[in-house]
């Protein structure tokens, strides 16, 4: 895989995920107490892709937080404004330098599977998408599958990307029309965390039937299927809830199917 690199797309404003993304970029929102960006990087490391020479990430919205979090681990591309998934890759063309690209959305939560199937037996020419079965009649599918966050792009498709726009129009649909698109089923659990409801569902999946309490959290209240971040204080009751690092739930409060956030020092409001 010496001719393969990876890019985590993390520049979006996360408007569907607001108000969670007002103080924290979507890529750094924690799922199961692990930032989504770190989860994506772990999946890439699982197929041998790690370090600034092999892995890049783009950033725009609240970019300083992404830069501070990922500096030294990936090659960073800071966009003055979000350019879209195709535009983000196009801006990294010189860094890609003729290699194929494994591109992943930072807001994709995958568990119980790996990216290995996406690479297995690849001919180097076909565009591949990781997919999960979609409900009949759902729009925007590929061979009956919904996109599951990662795609594999030959250099010839990356070389001619426009400076803005989305991969679905610039690559995936044209490749599909040309008979050069293949969907690889993902056998684990996938969730697009783009909305608060889906973000909560991903966290509850990470918690399983119990609770995930980070080291350094203070919990004196009752928790049922809760995720509590480091430095958080929970003195009330949590039922299917997420409490971000440093957030507080006071005695007498009861959070059900809810997310309690905490501001980040110096973050834009």
SSE diagram, text form:
Layout: E1 4-9, E2 30-31, E3 34-35, H1 36-45, E4 55-59, H2 63-70, E5 75-78, H3 84-91, H4 93-96, E6 100-105, E7 108-111, H5 116-119, E8 127-133, E9 145-153, H6 155-159, H7 167-177, E10 181-185, E11 189-192, H8 196-207, E12 212-213, E13 218-219, E14 223-228, E15 233-234, E16 237-243, E17 248-249, E18 254-260
Parallel strand pairs: 1-4, 1-6, 4-5, 8-10, 12-14, 13-15, 14-16, 15-17, 16-18
Antiparallel strand pairs: 2-3, 6-9, 7-11, 8-9
Helix pairs in contact: 3-7
Would you mind describing this structure in some detail?
The protein has 269 residues and is of the alpha/beta class. It has 2 domains: 4-192, Spore Coat Polysaccharide Biosynthesis Protein SpsA, Chain A (Alpha-Beta Complex), CATH 3.90.550; 208-260. Helix content is 23%, strand content 30%. It is built from 8 helices and 18 strands. The protein has helices at 36-45, 63-70, 84-91, 93-96, 116-119, 155-159, 167-177, 196-207; strands at residues 4-9, 30-31, 34-35, 55-59, 75-78, 100-105, 108-111, 127-133, 145-153, 181-185, 189-192, 212-213, 218-219, 223-228, 233-234, 237-243, 248-249, 254-260. The protein has a 7-stranded mixed β-sheet, sandwiched between helices. A 4-stranded parallel β-sheet has the order 12-14-16-18, covered by helices on one side. Helix 2 links the parallel strand 4 and strand 5 (75-78). Helix 3 (84-91) packs across helix 7 (167-177). The longest helix has 12 residues, at 196-207. The radius of gyration is 19 Å and the shape is globular. The mean pLDDT is 93.
């Amino acid at each position: 895989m010496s001719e393969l690199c990876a890019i985590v797309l993390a520049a979006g404003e996360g408007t569907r995920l607001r108000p969670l993304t007002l103080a924290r970029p979507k890529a750094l929102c924690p799922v199961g107490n692990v930032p989504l960006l770190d989860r994506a990087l772990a999946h890439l490391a699982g197929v041998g892709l790690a370090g600034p020479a092999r892995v890049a990430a783009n950033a725009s919205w609240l970019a300083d937080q992404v830069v501070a979090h990922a500096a030294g681990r990936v090659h960073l591309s800071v966009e003055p404004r979000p350019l879209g998934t195709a535009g983000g890759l196009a801006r990294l063309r010189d860094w890609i330098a003729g290699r194929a690209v494994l591109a992943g959305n930072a807001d994709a939560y995958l568990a119980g599977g790996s990216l290995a199937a996406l690479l297995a037996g690849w001919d180097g020419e076909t565009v591949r998408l990781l997919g999960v079965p979609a409900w009949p009649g759902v729009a925007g599918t590929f061979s009956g599958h919904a996109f599951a966050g990662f795609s594999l792009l030959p250099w010839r498709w990356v070389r001619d990307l426009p400076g803005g726009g989305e991969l679905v129009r610039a690559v995936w649909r044209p490749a599909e029309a040309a008979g050069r698109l293949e969907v690889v089923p993902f056998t684990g659990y996938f969730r697009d965390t783009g909305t608060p409801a889906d973000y909560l569902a991903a966290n509850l999946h990470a918690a399983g039937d119990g609770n995930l309490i980070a080291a350094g959290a203070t919990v004196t209240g009752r928790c049922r299927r809760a995720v509590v971040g480091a430095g958080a204080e929970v003195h009330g009751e949590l039922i299917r809830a997420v409490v971000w690092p440093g957030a507080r739930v006071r005695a007498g409060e009861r959070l059900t199917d809810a997310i309690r956030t905490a501001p980040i020092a110096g973050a834009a409001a």
